[in-house]
Design goal:
By secondary structure, the protein is an alpha+beta fold. It is 29% helix and 15% strand. The radius of gyration is 15 Å and the shape is globular. The chain binds iron/sulfur cluster.
Length: 117
């Protein structure tokens, strides 16, 4: 999950973790790390390596914007769609009006931050 620098700083401040313990730069984009054992986000409380297993977000109240808007993602035409990779997408309604703009703004911020490094 791509995150902004401000989100990383907030996660570090609120969890007491070093940023390097939960995020990495991938192709210039700051991204949440996966736990090597569970193969899920380091903040997901689960003891299963099954990608569809139940889990609880340990930073739910301060989770990044991309987590808040998931499973809505942008397609190649910059339209908000349900992520094909989400196993629970059938339980969600179509993207609410305005989701495209929210995701485009977020993407722009993340890409701008990445290119500034
Ligand atoms: S919602 Fe929580 S557990 Fe899921 S990717 Fe975001 S930070 Fe990680």
């Amino acid at each position: 999950m791509p995150i902004t620098k401000a989100e990383a700083a907030r996660l570090a401040r609120r969890t007491g973790m070093n940023e390097a313990d939960f995020a990495v730069v991938n192709d210039g984009v700051l991204t949440l790390l996966n736990n090597a054992e569970t193969r899920a986000c380091v903040f997901l409380l689960t003891d299963s390596a099954n990608a569809n297993a139940e889990g609880l977000c340990s930073v739910y109240e301060i989770r990044p914007k991309g987590c808040q808007t998931y499973p809505y993602v942008l397609n190649d035409h910059d339209q908000a769609v349900l992520d094909e990779g989400c196993p629970h997408r059938a339980q969600f309604p179509p993207p609410p009006e305005g989701t495209d703009a929210v995701l485009l703004n977020l993407e722009e911020r993340i890409v701008r931050e990445g290119s500034a490094d």
